[in-house]
């Protein structure tokens, strides 16, 4: 029995020693968040154009839809849009039913079919954007029309925002350290979160928005945000 007590005592001393070691290894630190933003005028846009046609038979609806979408694709190519910037993004054939207005036991009646074909278009010449939208509607596009502006390569601007965000985090950490009356030591960790917000609608004269034969479009600016999380040791 005494032997067991001796073993338990030794184990307790080992646990106390390990706990003291862990406590000693805990480093006091200051945690700060830094933020910065980069704004760029877009140099490209992505369009979502859809053609929907309805007919009594699926064949008729498909033929009408294909003819209209074929004209749209041909017009995009004629305006200089590369084949690599054209992509079918959605295609569907759906039956159309008429449901009884009262609570009768009559089943729904099939009255036709609806064919929908969507095209994603990357426009790299923004001066053509309004004209391309106008042309596509004239040739048969009757759904979609969603426009998103982007940048081909925003990496240089994001790098500048990243550096500014780190400086902002260091500045905040320095302010907290000064207020607390301590000195900063080594950086313990540094992590980043990046993202893109919706374009800022500011007036730009880049696009032919005033032309009477095109859809008025304003590109604005894209905003790229960088947030960094900083942990820096307190020098003791």
UniProtKB/TrEMBL annotation:
Pfam families: SIMPL (PF04402). InterPro entries: 26kDa_periplasmic_antigen, SIMPL/DUF541. Keywords: Signal. It comes from the Bacteria. The keyword Signal applies. One of its GO terms (biological process) is DNA damage response. Residues 1-24 form the signal peptide. This is SIMPL domain-containing protein. It comes from Halioglobus japonicus.
